[in-house]
Amino acid sequence: MPDSMSRLNVLAFRFTPDLAGTVQIRRLPEEFRRAWWAFDSAYKVRCGRDVQPAHSAVSLAMRGLLGGHVHFDPSKGELVTEMDLDEQDVLDTFTLFRAFSLGEEPDLDRPCELAEIAAATPAEHVHLGSYLDEGFTQPNPPGWVFATGVWAFARSLAEHPWEVDGRSVRLRDDTSGALNAWDDLWPGTVLRPVPGTKDKRAEPRYSMARITARLKTVPNIAYPVLLLEGNATRLSPTLRGVRSVLVEQKAVGAPLVRLALDGRIARHVNRPAAQTLAALSMDRAVLDLQDFAINAAEPGRVRGVLPKSWRFAIGRGVGMHFHRALHRHVHEAFPEIRAIGTRVVKGRFPAPRQGQIEAGAIADALRTHGHTSLTVVCLWAKDINRRRMLTELGEAFGVDLVGKDPADGAAVAVSDEIRVAVKHAPELLDHGLKIDRASLAERIPVLHQAPGDLTVVLCETDSDHSARVEPEDSEPETEQEARAAYKRFLERRGQLEAEDAKPQVRRLLARLGLVSQFLDQPKPVRKRAKPPKHEDYPARAAVIDLLRSAGLADDRFTYALSGVRIGEHLATSLTHIGIHVRQQNKQVRGGKTKLVVTITALIPPGVDETAWKVWAWTHRDRSRWEPYPLASAHFHAVALEPGSRSRDELTRLAGIVEHALGTLTDTTLRGVPYVIYVDGFASRGAWPGLFNNRQGTTPGLDRPWLPGSTLPVAQRPVATVRVNAEPTETPRPVSVTTVRLHADGRQTATESRTTTRLFRVETDFGNPVFWLSRVPVQFDGAGSGRLGEFMTRWGSEEGPETRRTWYSMNTLELYPIGELPDIAMEALAITAARLCRQTSGWDGQTTYPEPLHLARQLDLDHPEYRADELPDDPESPLLAHDE
After folding, report:
1. Nearest to 76 by CA among 111, 145, 27, 137
2. H or E segment at 488?
């Protein structure tokens, strides 16, 4: 049999000095900074509050004018432009910006002091490669080097027409550095009611391909890594409620201008930029947006970008073939570009045990929490949902619960340890703010948890109540009307969110010591090419989630981790700990940011035990380690803790985590070694040892370098695995190439379109890095059609698939950190990959290793959880249902 070697092809490339260009740098003198401070004071007086002038407006205006990246930092005295900037442009830009910021009438014949100092500062030309060629060390150039390099690469790529699906696509850059298929839109159709009639008419809608390029560092690779990503930008048929617009300038070759809006009005931070650019380019389109009505039938110079969570005629995502074609286009445009090398990690990866914990294993799992029985309570309002709950619970426990038809409020025995009860509670589950839910719950006896019993609750909900709030139909005529309409839109959305019964019921039940999950209303069944494996997938997912919330785990992790040795330890004998950190931004004006910390421990079974224990710790008043369901209830019963990602707060957070880990090792583990899995993106700043540019350096003594690093040696973790699933920082896989070496010396290569294997990245020094390639479960699901596998949306005819999401593969980055031999580092990555594939109940794999996944779910289920904004990527952790 021939030897073979497989490599993962990704949209990730080494950004070597030969790809970099030259920039013009003005190092502004101290005199400029003094003049800026004077302008800053005048601006505060005009605004009547302590607010800084938006210096980013200078960069944005110059980008729109020059068509290249611009970096301006008044505090450091830096003005860096990719294109040569002459003195007159400097004079005009600063003079216009200062006048517009202070509400004055600009006079270009009388330049301001800022303009004169900046224009008189000599410019030097520097090649970006001088910041990149630093030998075998982690690259750490100034941030503007990355931004400038990305912009230059994107513009160079746009010079090459993209031949894809039988057409030549022209890409155009915008002032954020992205590339847009401005002239090659994806069409769709929506039926809209005709005013005053019962009829409907077909109206066109459009989506636009958008390609973003980013430079980031990868641990122990000597050059920055260029990442490319494709997304579908949905274009709004109106400016109502739109948050940002793209504007085509009159000048041929000028970049598209991307502006943030408040209703239909350029937001305060960008209005000086729009005014300045409009004056410089003599193009009012970037300023007077209300004079440029959007034409839904034929998009023109001004195009609104639709918020990502709204319904639309064209689905999210661009599909796998889009990214494969883009990968090929990059290599054709830049033949010498160096791809990131990888090789597959060989070894046995056992097939995961699928499905929720079996009824026969629940007794052992309950004993790990100190319980002897489980009661599942179903709260329902509509009969159809009662039946759905009983059907899926019956499937889970191997009993015909629909046939048993339990009496309302009474519990029916499923086994010696399990009972199921149903209760009609429409008023308790109804939306609103004036419902006395506590009194209603008090009158439901099955919600009173008996000693030794673990009671969990499955509730009906209706997410459509607050899921989609769209702007008013009327078109505002003036700036004042636009602001008022946008304010009403935000107030209405906030009101509906406040009335939503789900967070209110979850908190009420948590205060009773009960964990809960929710089942949404049934959706219309889509016709599928083949029948789905499960008739009611949402109901099944709700039951799986409920049992996950109960912290029930059997021996499946012993099976999944068998045969893996990490140094002197078997993976099955280690405790696996996940640490989740998140800042929640202010949700209302005057509100406070919140800092969330949740930790879970997956503890191996003891002697004569089979079930793994799941314990958790949450950041709240009187925090302590508890069985997972109890910790969940206590956490969801209280408000999130105030906090931020400031250095002082993160230092305090790291100290809190040290205390939590020390307590666990003292009281529960008692000598059992452990491995930590931490989200490197979410936890950035908390532990210096997680940063790429700190790898190989001497740990500091001012705060914990890594989680557990300040504990006594016997209590420290065996290793830490930094996990990163952030789409903006991980590469997009496109295919796998397998090269086979035959006995006669011949080599043959084959390419596979998808893979779920683990790959080792070829680094230049230090510890290895690993990428786990994943295929979204929605891509391979029953009736999915595997959309986008063989063509892009350009090659697809308009039809039912137009509205569907087109998925692509994604990557989980695993970086083991510790003083272990190379073979142990690879074993850590294998362990993390297996813990993604083997879950406590879900059929597919999770975004994160199971301990970290369980910690994240504690946060995601919290009544106060709010995602800041849904990302564009349909496989993002915020969008994917990864339970």
Report:
1. 27
2. helix 479-499
Locate 138 and state its tokens: 């982690």
In 3D space, the residue among 771, 775, 776, 748 whose CA is nearest the CA of residue 761 turns out to be 771
- C-alpha angle 705-708-712 in degrees, rounded to nearest 5: 110
Rounded CA separation 197/219 (Å): 62
Which residue in 83, 84, 94 sits closest to 32, CA to CA?
94
Structure tokens at 831: 């362990």
Among residues 141, 32, 125, which one has the least CA distance to residue 80?
125
Report CA torsion sign: 96, 98, 99, 101. Answer: positive
Kindly report, residue by residue over 860-883, the tens digit of the pLDDT. Answer: 999 999 854 433 443 443 323 232
Give the confidence band of 562 by pLDDT, cuts at 50, 70, 90: very high
Secondary structure of residue 4 in the 3-state scheme: strand
The token duo for 649 is 């707060």
Mean pLDDT of the chain: 86
Q: How many CB atoms lie within 10 A of CB 532?
A: 14
Nearest in space to 672 (alpha carbons), one of 753, 590, 589, 569: 569
| Best CA proximity match to 715, nearest among 685, 745, 678, 674 | 674
Condensed to tens digits (0 to 9), the pLDDT of residues 480-521 reads 666 677 677 777 777 888 889 999 999 999 999 999 999 999
Q: Quote the tokens at residue 521.
A: 């209303």
Residue 96 class from Cβ within 10 Å (0-12 exposed, 13-18 middle, 19+ buried)?
buried
Q: Mapping DSSP to helix (H, G, I), strand (E, B) and coil, where does residue 529 land? A: coil
At 548, which helix (H) or strand (E)?
A: helix 537-549
Give the 3-state DSSP-derived string for 637-688, with helices as H, strands as E and coil as C.
CCCCCECCCCHHHHHHHHHHHHHHHHHHHHHHHCCCCEEEEEECCCCCCCCH
CA angle, 198 then 199 then 203, to 5°:
135
Cβ atoms of 870 and 309 within 8 Å: the answer is: yes
For residue range 71-108, list pLDDT tens digits in order. Answer: 999 999 999 998 888 899 899 999 988 998 898 988 98
**Of 690, 700, 678, 619, residue with least CA distance to 653:** 619
- Least trusted range by pLDDT, from 111-120, 232-241, 657-666, 727-736: 232-241
Report CA-CA distances (Å) from 474 to 259, 485, 486: 23, 9, 12
pLDDT band at 783 (very low <50, low <70, confident <90, very high): low
Q: Cβ-count burial of 48 within 10 angstroms (0-12 exposed, 13-18 middle, 19+ buried)?
A: exposed
Task: Using DSSP bridges, classify how beta strands 179-180 and 200-216 pair: parallel, antiparallel or unpaired.
Answer: antiparallel
Q: State the Cα–Cα distance between residues 614 and 628, nearest whole angstrom.
A: 6
Is the separation of the CB atoms in 490 and 501 below 8 Å? no
**How do 411-413 and 418-424 pair as beta strands?**
antiparallel
Per-residue HEC secondary structure of 309-369 comes to CCCCCCCCCCCHHHHHHHHHHHHHHCCCCEECCEEECCCCCCCCCCCCCCHHHHHHHHHCC
Q: Are 861 and 506 a contacting pair, CB within 8 Å? A: yes
pLDDT of residue 841: 79
Q: What is the pTM of this model?
A: 0.89
Residue-wise pLDDT tens digits, 195-230: 778 888 888 889 999 999 999 999 999 999 999 999
Scanning the structure block, which residue is given the tokens 């920039």?
23
H-type alpha helices, 24-86: 30-47, 56-66
Residue 179, φ and ψ in degrees, nearest 5:
-110, 140
CA 490 to chain centre: 23
Q: Is 186 helix (H, G, I), strand (E, B) or coil?
A: strand
Cβ neighbours of residue 698 closer than 8 Å, sequence gap 6 or more: none
| Cα separation values, 184 from 203, 423, 529, 543, Å | 19, 55, 30, 44
Give the three-state DSSP class for 40.
helix
> What pLDDT is attached to residue 278?
66
